[in-house]
C-alpha cells in the first residue's frame, strides 16, 4: 500500500540548534515528494519539493531535504532553527505532480528558548 | 494575486443539516483538490476536479458527500445530513496547468453539534 511515515510525532529542539525531521514513503515507483508546514489554524505552505534531478533540494526559510532512493526517505533539515519555525510539518508524496497527495500524520516541532 | 480562498472559515451545523464549503482557486488555476484533516491526523485526499469534471474521487465517502467545480464560480464541497464524525478541517488546494505544486487555502473548520 502507498503510504508516508513520519516516525516522530513531536520533536523539541533548542533555538539555534540543527533540525532533522524524518520521512519515509512506500511507493512502487519514484514519487513526487513534498514538505509542507502548517501553523495553528492556518493552511499549508510548501517548503520544498522533489520531482527529479539533484537529490538535495533547497527550499524556503532555510530548509533543505535529501531524497535517498535506497532508503525510501526524504528527510527535512535546517542547520539552525528559529522560534518562528515552531509548527506542524507534513511530508507528502504523489505519483504525478500535485495530484492526490498522500500525507504523513505530521511532526509537531517545539522550539525551546 | 490572491491565494486560494475558502469560505466560511468556520461552520457550525446541527446533525442532519447540510454543509456547503466553497473554494475559489488562485487566478489562472484550473485544478482543484479537496482534503479533510481530522484532529491529530494528516490530510486525506478526497477529490480532484477540473472545470465541470470530476477527475478522481477515490477519497470521497460514497454517501452524503459531493463536489463540483462549475464553469463559473467557486468549487463546492457539499455534505448532506451531517454527522458528528464529519467534524474536521476541510482544505482546498489549487494548481496550475502543469500541476507542479498545490497551493492550499486556510481551510474551513466544520463542527457538527
Textual characterization of the structure:
The complex is a heterodimer of chains A (113) and B (113). With 113 residues, chain A is mainly β. Chain A is 0% helix and 51% strand. The model of chain A has no long low-confidence stretch (mean pLDDT 94). Chain A is globular. Chain A contains no helices and twelve strands. In chain A, strands 2, 5, 6, 10, 11 and 12 form a six-stranded mixed sheet that branches. With 113 residues, chain B is mainly beta. Chain B has strands at residues 5-7, 10-13, 19-24, 31-37, 43-50, 53-56, 65-68, 75-79, 88-95, 103-104, 108-112. In chain B, strands 2, 4, 5, 6, 9, 10 and 11 form a seven-stranded mixed sheet that branches. In chain B, strands 1-3-8-7 form a four-stranded antiparallel sheet, with no helix packed on it. Chain B is globular. Chain B starts with a strand and ends with a strand. The relative contact order of chain B is 0.33. Chains A and B meet through strand 6 and strand 11 of A and strand 4, strand 5, strand 9 and strand 10 of B.
The rounded distance between the terminal residues' Cα atoms of chain B is 36 Å
- Derived from helix and strand composition plus strand pairing, the structural class of chain B reads mainly beta
* Biggest β-sheet strands, sense, barrel of chain B: 7 strands, mixed
- Uncertain parts of chain B: none
C-alpha Rg of chain B (nearest Å):
13 Å
* Most extensive contact: A-B, 23 and 28 residues
Proportion in helices of chain B? under 10%
Describe the oligomeric state of these chains in a short phrase.
heterodimer
The total strand number of chain A stands at 12
Helix content of chain A: under 10%
Order of SSEs of chain A: EEEEEEEEEEEE
Structural shape of chain B: globular
Overall average residue pLDDT of chain A: 94
The arrangement of helices and strands of chain B along the chain is: EEEEEEEEEEE
Amino acid at each position: 500500500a502507498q503510504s508516508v511515515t513520519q516516525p516522530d510525532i513531536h520533536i523539541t529542539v533548542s533555538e539555534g540548534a540543527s533540525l532533522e525531521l524524518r520521512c519515509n514513503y512506500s511507493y512502487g515507483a519514484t514519487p513526487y515528494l513534498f514538505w509542507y508546514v502548517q501553523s495553528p489554524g492556518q493552511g499549508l505552505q510548501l517548503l520544498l519539493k522533489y520531482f527529479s534531478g539533484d537529490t538535495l533540494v533547497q527550499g524556503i526559510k532555510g530548509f533543505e531535504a535529501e531524497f535517498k532512493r535506497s532508503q525510501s526517505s526524504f528527510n527535512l533539515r535546517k542547520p539552525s532553527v528559529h522560534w518562528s519555525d515552531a509548527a506542524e510539518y507534513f511530508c507528502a508524496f504523489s505519483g504525478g505532480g500535485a495530484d492526490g497527495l498522500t500525507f504523513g500524520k505530521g511532526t509537531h516541532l517545539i522550539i525551546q528558548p | 494575486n490572491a491565494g486560494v480562498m475558502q469560505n466560511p472559515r468556520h461552520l457550525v451545523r446541527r446533525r442532519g443539516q447540510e454543509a456547503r464549503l466553497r473554494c475559489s482557486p488562485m487566478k489562472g488555476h484550473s485544478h482543484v483538490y479537496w482534503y479533510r484533516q481530522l484532529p491529530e491526523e494528516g490530510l486525506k485526499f478526497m477529490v480532484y476536479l477540473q472545470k465541470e469534471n470530476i477527475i478522481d474521487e477515490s477519497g470521497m465517502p460514497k454517501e452524503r458527500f459531493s463536489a463540483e467545480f462549475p464553469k463559473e464560480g467557486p468549487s463546492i464541497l457539499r455534505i448532506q445530513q451531517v454527522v458528528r464524525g464529519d467534524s474536521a478541517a476541510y482544505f482546498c488546494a489549487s494548481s496550475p496547468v502543469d500541476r507542479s505544486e498545490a497551493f492550499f487555502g486556510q481551510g474551513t473548520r466544520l463542527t457538527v453539534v
